[in-house]
Design brief:
The complex is a heterodimer of chains A (244) and B (244). Chain A has 244 residues and is mainly α. Chain A contains 12 helices and no strands. Chain A has helices spanning 2-16, 19-42, 50-77, 80-86, 92-100, 103-121, 127-135, 137-153, 156-173, 186-194, 196-209, 212-243. Chain A starts with a helix and ends with a helix. By secondary structure, chain B is an alpha/beta fold. Chain B contains 9 helices and 10 strands. Chain B has helices at residues 43-50, 72-78, 94-104, 109-122, 138-150, 168-181, 194-200, 218-225, 230-240, and strands spanning 3-14, 17-28, 32-37, 58-63, 66-67, 79-82, 156-160, 186-191, 203-208, 211-216. In chain B, the strands form 2 sheets. A 6-stranded mixed beta sheet of chain B has the order 6-7-8-3-9-10, with helices on both faces. In chain B, strands 2-1-4-5 form a 4-stranded antiparallel beta sheet, with helices on one face. The chains are: A mainly alpha (244), B alpha/beta (244). At the A-B interface, helix 1 and helix 4 of A face helix 2, strand 6 and helix 3 of B.
Chain lengths: 244, 244
């Protein structure tokens, strides 16, 4: 346990000390929330109401957590530090948990900051917000698993393209955060519904409304994706570890 | 004299290439043994197998009686590696890097503090203990890298090209450090620098195409080849080793 925690502590420090983490991980969702609230104040749109927008932004912010963890893992894979650590008594589970666990508090912190800002901007406090913050653990699990998978399978350069561009765009456009996905037609809607992004956003929105009945089907989608991606990620990580 | 390392018919195949071919070698306890060879000779693969990073295709090696094939966990507790490139966590300070290694070796807080202070004093790192590793010069990074390897008080230390890329002063300082370690533990050093092997090692092994061509002191290898200079002795051994 102590071994894993030491490695996790290092992962946390590496991520937090990267200025891009603060800028994109925490700063960007905050800027988006401010900007869209400003638009809402001038041209009221139902989509940009804080009860609707804030849960979406907290989920969108998680795509940056995928990017940061994938970047760290892929960078580590090419470094001698990992070679050194492979010669220590650290086990495969220590490496996997050491990469995954430190990202969870970052995801929660990101959601807390978004909700605090939303409360300042006029979101009415209800206990459902606490439940939504706690429930962010489930989408976080999916996004963190995706980080482990991308970091284990891709090079640092590929991570930048796939997680930095493709994933953030998928997470933005196919999640229904900024516009109603029905506007894009039936085919896109079906495609979006087959992916976890829209379900993660709808899960959080339902939690904010306190609508557990609506939340549950979305929860299973996100959890299912999370479990499958995590299983694949662990296999790929172990394969890479053996290969190295 | 007791053997710290006993290598028996160690072989490693990569697809259609045999990187190490039936290697037999004994290294005495407390000895500094240098492994020399041109690129692709099999030095790094041998070290990787001895450090349990790579599984041998066949054969085995006993490190202080523990098998790399069947007791990797036990071997990892008694060895330490300073890899070819500087293996430090760049965003962690000197002190944090040392504590990371204490943590991954399972030291409790008190022991970690004690060992960190000892290594900082021994390697004269006090002036830079709070400095991020990425901000250090190449020589200081390499010194930190060796301190990180020694923090677990290993019985066997692997130094892979420890002075590669260092300027003449940094190299000389690192030689002094390595000299001070001699006798305290068994050291296996790989290097491309002939003068480094001649200056530091008790015995030298020359490898080519996965085979061990010769072992002996620098003086013995010179006498064996009839050369006055060690570099010439090495060239003669490798050239006369023939294409296998």
């Amino acid at each position: 346990m102590r071994r894993m925690l030491s490695f996790a502590n290092r992962t946390m420090k590496e991520i937090l000390r990267d200025p891009l983490t603060m800028a994109f991980g925490l700063g960007f969702p905050v800027v988006l929330l401010l900007l869209l609230s400003l638009i809402q104040a001038n041209i009221p749109v139902e989509m940009f109401e804080l009860t609707h927008l804030t849960p979406g932004i907290t989920v969108f912010g998680l795509s940056f957590m995928t990017l940061f963890s994938a970047q760290l893992i892929s960078k580590d894979r090419t470094s001698s530090l990992l070679t050194r650590l492979y010669t220590t008594p650290l086990k495969a589970t220590d490496f996997i948990l050491g990469y995954l666990l430190p990202v969870i508090p970052l995801c929660i912190a990101q959601a807390v900051i978004c909700y605090i800002l939303a409360l300042i901007l006029g979101l009415q406090f209800t206990v459902n917000i606490i439940w939504a913050i706690l429930m962010i653990f489930v989408p976080s699990f999916f996004y963190i698993a995706l980080g482990l998978l991308c970091g284990s399978a891709l090079t640092e350069k590929q991570v930048g393209g796939i997680c930095g561009a493709l994933l953030t765009n998928l997470s933005a456009w196919l999640s229904g955060i900024w516009f109603d996905i029905n506007m894009l037609g039936k085919a896109v809607k079906t495609f979006a519904n087959a992916l976890p992004f829209i379900h993660a956003v709808e899960l959080e929105r339902a939690m904010v409304r306190g609508d557990i009945k609506v939340a549950l089907p979305h929860l299973w989608w996100v959890l299912g994706y999370g479990i499958v991606i995590m299983a694949v990620a662990v296999l790929v990580f172990l394969r890479q570890m053996k290969k190295q | 004299m007791k053997n710290a390392i006993e290598i028996r018919k160690l072989t490693k195949d990569y697809k259609d290439i045999r990187a190490v071919d039936n290697l037999d070698l004994e290294i005495h306890e407390g000895e500094l043994f240098a492994l020399l060879g041109v690129n692709g000779a099999g030095k790094t693969t041998t070290i990787k197998m001895l450090c349990c990073i790579t599984q041998p295709t066949s054969g085995d090696a006993l490190l202080n009686g523990k098998s790399i094939a069947s007791e990797a966990d036990a071997v990892k507790k008694i060895i330490a590696v300073s890899p070819q490139e500087t293996a430090v966590a760049p965003n962690l300070s000197v002190e944090e890097n040392l504590k990371l290694m204490c943590g991954v070796h399972g030291f409790d807080r008190q022991r970690a503090e004690k060992r960190t202070d000892e290594m900082i004093e021994e390697f004269k790192l006090d002036r830079i203990r709070k400095k991020k590793a990425s901000k250090l010069s190449g020589g200081w990074q390499r010194r930190l890298s060796i301190a990180m390897a020694l923090i677990s008080e290993p019985q066997i230390l692997f130094l892979d090209e420890p002075t590669l890329g260092l300027d003449v002063i940094a190299r000389s300082e690192l030689w002094d450090t390595i000299r001070e370690l001699k006798g305290k533990m068994t050291i296996i050093l790989t290097t491309h620098y002939m003068e480094e092997a001649e200056e530091l090692s008790d015995r030298i092994g020359v490898m080519k195409d996965g085979h061990l061509l010769a072992t002996g002191t620098a003086q013995e290898l010179k006498e064996m080849t009839g050369e006055e200079k060690f570099e010439n002795a090495f060239i003669k051994l490798v050239k006369e080793g023939g294409a296998r």
